[in-house]
Specification:
GO biological process, one term: negative regulation of DNA-templated transcription initiation
Protein name: Transcriptional regulator MraZ
Subunit structure: Forms oligomers.
Pfam families: MraZ
Strand content: 25-35%
Family: Belongs to the MraZ family.
Oligomer: single chain
CATH architecture of the domain at 10-54 and 96-159: 3-Layer(aba) Sandwich
Shape: globular
Order of helices and strands: EEHEEHHEEEHEEHH
Largest sheet: 6 strands, antiparallel
CATH class of the domain at 10-54 and 96-159: Alpha Beta
Length: 160
């Protein structure tokens, strides 16, 4: 993460006719304080996440290097299908993006369908502590309904 502060907040935005949306500056300042590159990631249907590029790439590279080492050591010989699945998901999961003027983010083709929001539609921008998430409102509400009862227990676990 570009900052030691959690990225928090919930903001309603509208996708324009070119699938652009404005990300609040208080969020982008925390996500990429040095105007670092950003990575847009397919998280789950109805949700994209936006990460600090160097942070995301470092974690991804570390994981991929471990998989390469396991392949070289012959530890994944019986798991070729899993390695292929990982490769397919890596091929489509992320894209480098930049913010245009006024913090506008263009949602690329392929990511638009995954998000499931048409041009002119509403989205929610949610701070997720270490990244920013872009949600289809119905998906966000369903996620909140499922996860909110776990809040107190999760806070106690992480802070204890």
């Amino acid at each position: 993460m570009g900052s030691d502060e959690f990225i928090l907040g919930e903001f309603s935005r509208t996708l324009d006719d070119r699938f652009r949306l404005s990300i609040p500056t208080q969020i982008t300042d925390l996500l990429a304080p040095k105007e670092d590159d950003l990575i847009l990631v397919k998280e789950r249907p109805g949700c994209l996440s936006l990460w600090n590029g160097p942070q995301w790439q470092g974690k991804l590279d570390a994981g991929v290097n471990l998989v390469h080492a396991k392949i070289a050591a012959g530890k994944l010989e019986n798991r070729i299908a899993d390695v292929q699945l990982l490769g397919r998901l890596l091929s489509t999961r992320q894209r480098n993006v930049t913010l245009a003027g006024k913090g506008r983010l263009l949602i690329p083709e392929g990511f638009r369908e995954f998000l499931g929001v048409e041009a002119g539609g509403e989205v929610l921008i949610v701070g997720a502590a270490v990244c920013v998430e872009i949600w289809k409102p119905e998906s966000w509400l369903q996620n909140l309904e499922e996860k909110m009862p776990e809040f107190r227990s999760l806070l106690d676990q992480l802070s204890g």
